[in-house]
């Protein structure tokens, strides 16, 4: 066929138009004249997907011709992919061509992009990080597969009614999801329950056999993941649970139709819904079933491919590097052991070496209540063979500890895989540590705290396993796609290689002192703010002024993230205005966004408090529109892409020592926002990079937080000694934000006064003072612009490409095309 004009592969407007028309007509049975927006969206997506598949097939082919290559398997219970259309067009380099193709049919590409529903298959930072890493792996041309669960219902949609969060089911599949393709022929059988028995094989060896009580089918659904302007196209392979109802399995589902239907229902619940709880795992059997479900599918899939391409079980680790995204997939450790021992007859030591060399473990949180444990009885009932293997791993682990530390039974108790206090339970973090050759935290401080506190015993015994890999975000989605105005200005100024060499942004430094460049920089930001203001008006009815300082905090709602500290500052400004309406304050628009876990009552009350603050402030005549408070509903990747580019100030105000890394902090700074933040997570490294003079720092350090707590922290005393703080807390307690109801926010107020575990009152004064420095700088637009430009110029470290290069070097030992690296 004529090169460049092929309907499946052509990248010019004419070929793309032809491709979209063909899909509309012959695939969807629609005439372009009567097609709906969704029809056009689907047809456009299919046309793009063809071009991804073409590259995907070529990537697989390249891999097959590399006998020594290693492939990365990123195992994650969550992938927060975000909308796919715009990101794929950018990576293919055909945004303008597609816009032109659609325009010829009277369709606006931007309308289709707006129409897209994102797959919300994650809770927040951890799930979005997995998606950024897939983008970078493909861009760096590292063969990789993301393995996870194809939840039918992702993270709930959030509505705000009367100020309260209401959760609605996320039906992301209801209009059809065009980016994936099901591969029923590659289905995997997953087993649960039952019992084990021993037997002697032909060689007279003692072996174990698992007789399950239940079998579920895992069907893979593949989404192509294209790198930026490269040919490499990797795979996201998500598994959907189905009932097994084939003749082969009739032996397991005896007769009885009602029973069979019931089994179908229970089988399919496994991939039904994402657990929204991001703080305290509750030991729910279904959650463990989900974890084992996708892990068993993934390992089987990897092992199958390995054996098909001529590998042996003993060389598995030479072809696969598997990363555990938190402890959620950690049952992969006993699962690989089980396959190597029981199905392939390896000896323990050999199987253990393969397993340890295969896995790396990334920890994402220090919160003690978030460390996963499973009751032993539950784990054993669901995975009897795995429990036996875990006990054997533990026996060898404890023997090893006793050899190195004779008589130190307390250490054995702490490091044991089994918690013996109360209901006996399996500690997944310990299992991940013992089963992995590499263990990493996600920012420098986080790794240090992991090493000195949560995992100190493990550092003592296996120091060589530990390393830090600071998180990063993809500049393609979060700058090129989200902020075309800023991207264009940067490319015109320093060239267009910065999306893949983010350190090149440093070339902007010399322009920070150019008044003309600063003015264009401000124009871009202003246009982004006008756009966001229009969206805010449409979604909330609130009018905000694009000339005001956009002060934004978007992230999951959690006490440690301290959205309520932000509220205390707003109420402080409000009170000052009430006392002196002529006070010269910097006009600000405060935007909040984020979901609260449905069972987390305090977080839900914080959302209500933000709304109530808006109700109090927004229309108060004394305020004269100078302060506006907005709760932006249903924060998501898609909404984030509209929000980050419009921010002037990024709120990163967690209690020091609590936020493992944060990644929103990076997205804001890359879009020209200045940061007000604590010395927590990656904030510390951001400040190191951009320079202390270009970062608004406040608050206690992690060490100071620890000693304040050890010394008997008394929030009540702080409240009593600070008149302004006391007045603001009293304002909340008075019922003035609740139509006179003094009970509504009482639990929140009492929590602050009597416990305040996140040191909100301790940091209040420092925060308010820091906000005054922010306001002072805002009054000098030239100085502000300069600082904003310097922030962007110095953010190169926080590309997820850098993070992935670190993983390749320090953990996976792979290079482009899977070539092994030394080390
Ligand atoms: C647990 C039980 C049941 C259901 C869900 C969970 C669960 C899900 C996600 C628990 C924790 C989850 O994620 C933790 C998380 O998102 N951590 C964040 O990871 C980011 C990426 O490394 C960091 O930037 C954030 O600081 C960290 O909070």
- By DSSP, the count of extended strands is 25
Distance between the termini: 47 Å
Helix content: 40-55%
User: How is the biggest beta sheet arranged?
Assistant: 10 strands, mixed
CATH architecture of the largest domain: 3-Layer(aba) Sandwich
Low-confidence stretches: 247-255
Helix/strand structural class: alpha/beta
**Average pLDDT score:** 95
CATH superfamily of the largest domain: Glycogen Phosphorylase B
Report the sheet-strand fraction: 5-15%
Number of domains: 3
Bound molecules: N-[(biphenyl-4-yloxy)acetyl]-beta-D-glucopyranosylamine
CATH topology of the largest domain: Rossmann fold
Structure description:
The chain folds into three domains: 1-66 and 84-117; 67-83 and 118-469, Glycogen Phosphorylase B (Rossmann fold, 3-Layer(aba) Sandwich); 475-804, Rossmann fold, CATH 3.40.50.2000. The radius of gyration is 27 Å and the shape is globular. Strands 1, 4, 7, 8, 11, 12, 13, 14, 18 and 19 form a ten-stranded mixed β-sheet that branches. A six-stranded parallel β-sheet has the order 22-21-20-23-24-25, sandwiched between helices. The longest helix has 28 residues, at 37-64. The chain is of the alpha/beta class. β16 and β17 form a beta hairpin. It is built from 32 helices and 25 strands. It catalyses: [(1->4)-alpha-D-glucosyl](n) + phosphate = [(1->4)-alpha-D-glucosyl](n-1) + alpha-D-glucose 1-phosphate. Its EC number is 2.4.1.1. InterPro entries: Glycg_phsphrylas, Glyco_trans_35, Pyridoxal_P_attach_site. One of its GO terms (molecular function) is 1,4-alpha-oligoglucan phosphorylase activity. Pfam families: Phosphorylase.
